Amino acid sequence: MMRKNAIFASEMEHKTRAIVLRAVKYGEDKFIIDFLTRDSGRESSIWKISKSRKAKVAKQLFQPLSIVDVVTDSMPNKQLSHIKEARLSYVYASLPFEERKLSLAFFVAEFLMYATRNLHNDSAMFDFVEQSLIWLDAADKGIANFHLMFMIRMSRFLGFFPDMSSHHQGYVFDLREGRFSGDIPTHRDYLLPEDANKMHILMRMTPSNLHCFKMTRKERNRVIDFSLQFYRLHIPQFGEMKTLAILREL
Questions:
Q1: Distance (Å, whole) CA 174 – CA 119
Q2: Strand partners for 42
Q3: Alpha-carbon span 111 to 239, nearest angstrom
Q4: Radius of gyration for the chain, computed over Cα atoms and rounded to the nearest angstrom
């Protein structure tokens, strides 16, 4: 009986919806795929493909932020599962083809790599990410601040969304505490009133009103900087964003 149970366990399959964060080539015919999954948070899996399908499959399935349905072997005590089946769950109409949207996609994919590194199951957060990407794909205007809105709204699922009720005009924003204050903190991690007001504006952004908020490139870059600072204070080992340079030019 014990042997049968062990064999059964080794053949268990795990089916889930997933968002591709990164694909790294491994050997001649394999990729290691980092996923954000709906059922179990972050996962890394090996996908082996035949040479005849290599270019086509890699292009369609492994682009950053591709939304896929995958079946993996779920084997105990194994660091990397193997993908047995994979198919696109949602086919983007514009995201991979429009330069601005593609730049945003690369940034969001790298951001999620760091922000969800130790994340376990959170289906509500996955749904938020998936719906945000589908919205971006369909949007025909007002996307310049998408990444700013996405980052601040994502913090709600990670447990450090700013306390909006503490806002008053002229207050500073304490990045460590995640709240507005009339007193200057004793540490250096805070925003002066001008930037604190931008944080408050950021917290009011939603997909339906995003087109109403206008920022210059300089203002947008400033908001990116303090938003990432906010994340680094709350998520240990949040890395340096390599895709940030691209967004600074948009």
A1: 25
A2: 36
A3: 9
A4: 20
Q: To which residue do tokens 């980052």 refer? A: 151
CA separation, residue 71 to residues 33, 42, 93, 210 (Å): 13, 15, 25, 36
User: What token pair was written down for 241?
Assistant: 């964003």
Q: Are 129 and 19 in contact (CB under 8 A)?
A: yes
pTM of the shown model: 0.89
| Strands, sheet with 172-174, edge to edge from the N-terminal-most edge strand | 179-181, 172-174, 190-191
pLDDT digits (tens, 9 = 90+) for 182-220: 999 999 999 999 999 999 999 999 999 999 999 999 999
Query: What tokens does 144 get?
Result: 């310049």
Q: Which residues contact 8 (CB under 8 A, 6 or more apart)?
A: none
SS3 call for 83? strand
Cβ pair 136, 101 in contact under 8 A: yes
